[in-house]
Amino acid sequence: MFKRTRLKIMIFITTTVMLLLVGTVGAIALSSYIEEYNQTVGADKNGLLELFEYSVPDEDAAAKTGSDGDASLPRKDMEAQLSIIKRFVGVLIRNTFRIGLFIVILVFSLSYFIAGWILKPLEESYKRQKQFISDAGHELKTPVATIDANAELLYGDIGDNKWLDNIRYESRRMTELIRQLLDLVRTETVKNIKEDVDLGRIVMGSALVYEAVAFEKGYLIETDIDDDIVIHADKGQMEQLAAILIDNAIDHASGDGAINISLKKDRSRVILRISNPGDKITDEDMKNLFERFYRADKAHSDNGHYGLGLAIAKAIVTSHKGSISVKSGGGVNVFTVEL
How far apart are CA 179 and CA 238, in angstroms? Predict the structure, then answer.
């Protein structure tokens, strides 16, 4: 994430400096050659305008003398003017290239350090945030596990009790939240263990697992998966990615239709598309959909969704140098992953 931002800053700085350089060299060259033109051709006080100004031969004089207009010659020698312009353009290009090449290398090198200096506080803040989430998650795991274990033991002794049921329910929710937090941090910080995996098999397996869940909501899962799509990836993360996107599609499905899962190979890329019938996603939600803890529908937090699923999916895709996007319209929402 910060590498791309740094590159954008470097390109912006270099482009700005180059534009200023071209403008400065052009102005100097133009000024120099206007002065030379005035000296050699004899331009009057009108200066720059004289460089492009020509007079039209006097037709009346031409008629009187019976000539083709030689009685009134152009005020300036056109060939001399064209020569000056050509020389000006040639010198401008040569000087810009010679000086520009050196400046580009110098500015691009300096912009690397400038961009790093600008982004350093953000990078440090981001690292501290990830470290805090990791530490907090590990610290919370033990007490939450203890509460859950004791609640189960108590349930075995006293049976059903609404207060105890609340404790067990919230304990499970907290356990799931901690798991998702640690999954997110692990995805962003731990190096992937990649191997050749059959992505088609993984996606189909996840579809079969969620088939019953979709059926309970009144939806069918329809698949269009090519055979033998093998990629070099982290198998565990690919399973997690497929599960997150299919679960998200089922959970946010509404209206008539089916959950469609497509996996195709397009040249050197593999494209996974998962779509569901549903309301149009607003532009505001579209911008923040892959951000941590963002939920377009706040009510879904009661179903174990805390706005981390799509953030984890994006982190997985990014770690595999892929892209993930969403399109919404016509009563259908489509998530597309390219790997």
Answer: 17
